[in-house]
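User: I'm new to structure prediction. If I give you an amino acid sequence, what do you actually give back? Let's try with this one:
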Amino acid sequence: MAITVIRELDESPSDGLGQGEMLSVKAVHAVPDDTDGHPGEETLCGKPTADMERLRYQPASADTSWLPPGMIPLKCRWCTDALQPLYASDPH
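Assistant: Good question. You get back a string of structure tokens that encode the predicted 3D arrangement of the chain. For your 92 residues, that looks like this:
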């Protein structure tokens, strides 16, 4: 199964210094691709993808983690569990 890796953004309130809203990454999810290679409308954990941001990371193979380097602490536990049979080397 081909997947697209996306991140769920968390909007923080303004800091009061006119800086506006700060965006941070809340979680990293996996989305199954459709037959045309486009990401689906829901993550593997069932969240809608409309407000999420696509990452330019593509797992090279089943021996490669589905997560981009440095984003392991932000992984979605449910997406990771769904991918476990396909990406067995994934850190849990």
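You can read the tokens as a compact description of the fold. Here is one thing that stands out. The chain has a mean pLDDT of 82.
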